[in-house]
Amino acid sequence: MNILQIIARGIIKKSFNLSVWTIEQFHDTQVYEQKKRELLNLPEGTLGQDIAKCLEENKLRLVPNYESHDLKHVLLDFKMTPVDEIRMQAFMLGNGNYSVPSIMIFIFGFMLLPDLWKTFYFDFKNGSKSKPIKTWTIEDYAHCQTLTLREYVMNYSKSESQKEFDMKTILKISSYLAVILGTFGMIFCLPFLFSANMLDLVGAGFPFVGGAIIASGGLISLSNLTKYQTKLQLEIEQKIECNLNVISTKP
C-alpha cells in the first residue's frame, strides 16, 4: 500500500468519525448505550448479540437513527474499516438502496480509492443478486440467527432478484426522468406565460400543461412504486418470518 492509499483511507476514517460525532451531538447517546447492552444479552449467535459484540470490539456504539447501518455491517460480514464501509455501500447500491447518504458515501470513497474500483464493481454485482435488505431493522431481526439470515440473503434466487432489481431500476429512472423533464419544461415555458403577445401565451401554454402532466405522472409513478415495493416486501417477510423465528430459537 503506497502513501496515497494510506492517506485516502485516513481521510475516509476521519470523515466518518466526524460525521458520527456530529450526529451524536443532537441525540441522547445513553439511550443507544442501553440498547446495545440489551442486544448483548441476547442468545449466542443471534444478529442482535453479534452487532453488540462487533461494536464492543471496535469500541463503537450505535449511531442514532442509523442502527440498521450496523446491522448491515454484521449481516453482510463487512468489517468496521474505511475500505469495507465503501464496499458495503457499493453492495447496498446494487441491492437497491438509493438513499442520498449511501450514494454520497460511495462517491466519496470511489474517488479516493481508485485501486479498489474492481472490488467495488463485484460488490455491486453481489448486491444486485442478493435479497433486498434496505428496509431491515434491528428490532425485526435481532433475535434471528446471523448465519441463517446471511445464508438466506446471499442465496437469494438470482433470476427473481435480477428481475426485481432491473424492473425497479427501470421504473425509478423513468419516473425521475419524467419529473425532471416535466419540471424543466414548465420552468422553461413559465416566463412566456407573462408575455403580452398572444402567440407566446398559446405557444408556451400547451407545453407548460404538458410538462405539468409529465411531471405529475412521474410523481404518481414513484408513489405507486413505493407502495408496491412496501407491499411486496411485507409479503415476502411474512412468508419467511415463521421459519426464521423457529430457527432463531434453536440452540
Describe the structure.
- The protein has helices at 3-24, 29-40, 47-57, 67-75, 82-94, 100-112, 117-129, 138-141, 146-154, 158-189, 198-248.
- It is built from eleven helices and no strands.
- The radius of gyration is 23 Å and the shape is elongated.
- The chain folds into two domains: 3-154, no CATH class; 158-248.
- The chain starts with a helix and ends with a helix.
- It is mainly alpha-helical.
- It is 75% helix and 0% strand.
Shape: elongated
How many helices? The count is 11
What is Rg?
A: 23 Å
- Percent in strands: under 5%
Helix content: over 70%
Q: In terms of per-residue confidence, which ranges show pLDDT below 50 for 5 or more consecutive residues? A: none
Q: What sequence of helices (H) and strands (E) makes up the elements?
A: HHHHHHHHHHH
Distance between the termini: 43 Å
SS-based structural class? mainly alpha
Largest sheet: none
| Count of distinct strands | 0
Average pLDDT score: 82
